[in-house]
Amino acid sequence: MPRTLPIEIAVQDVAGVRVALAGGAARVELCQALGLGGLTPSAGLIEAAAGAARDAGVPGFVHVLVRPRGGGFVYDADELDTTVRDIRAAAAAGADGIVVGALTDAGALDLEAVRRFVDAAAGLDVTVHRAVDASSDPLGSVAALHALGARRVLTSGGAADCRAGLATLARMAVESGPLEIMAGGGVRIGDIADLAAAGVDAVHLSARGTASRGGPSGPGGGVDGFDVTESGLVAAAVAAAVVAEA
């Protein structure tokens, strides 16, 4: 019998949420500024996204990235405090889960920070993002997560993309116990079958295209377009995620 590997789509607006819903995605990672790796979305966007999922009758759909800035994942006390506040605000705005991560100065997964984030989430699903891939020990980072109360980890297997990290992803899938392994990082539609064969629990991708509605953002050198979620890519990913049982 075939099984369907859950597909998570990274989206930056309510239109993207609606595309992901219509395309059969399992959930979205809601964020802003994907060009910076993703940042915390506004409260209004979270509320609207949660409302769209609720209207569609799809529970557990909106998972909010909580990341205070671009750059690396080593945060000072103010940034950690902001993250905790934003987690609580996301929950109040209707989020079903949060996506977080932090590293220590030494490059290890910041277990105390993750514990604070899980506590602030107050029972929402917690996904730890690709900070684990930037850590000094991705396998060890993943092994530590379930004990902290995380539900899943988004990872490329410590590599630049999922293709390069495929062998490590397979090892993570075997060794992770109840922690879900969600493969993400440069995922192409053609990679999904290989990721399923590696034993991962879900796949994450952005399914991004570019729109140019309204023209450039200004005469001073602004960008000419903005990201949109492509319905064709979402549909293709969901179709590719129907795989035969081993």
TrEMBL record:
Q: Does the keyword Ion transport apply?
A: no
Query: What's a Pfam family in this record?
Result: CutC
Domain of life assignment: Bacteria
Provide the GO MF annotations for this entry.
copper ion binding
Q: Where is this protein localized, as stated in its record?
A: Cytoplasm
List the Gene3D superfamilies hit by this protein, alphabetically.
Copper homeostasis (CutC) domain
Q: Which GO terms describe its cellular component?
A: cytoplasm
Q: InterPro entries of this UniProt entry?
A: CutC-like (IPR005627), CutC-like_dom_sf (IPR036822)
Arranged from A to Z, the UniProt key words for this protein are: Cytoplasm
State the PANTHER family in the record.
COPPER HOMEOSTASIS PROTEIN CUTC (PTHR12598), COPPER HOMEOSTASIS PROTEIN CUTC HOMOLOG (PTHR12598:SF0)
Q: Which family does it belong to?
A: Belongs to the CutC family.
Query: How is this protein named in the record?
Result: PF03932 family protein CutC
Name its species: Agromyces fucosus
Which classification does the entry list for the species?
Bacteria, Bacillati, Actinomycetota, Actinomycetes, Micrococcales
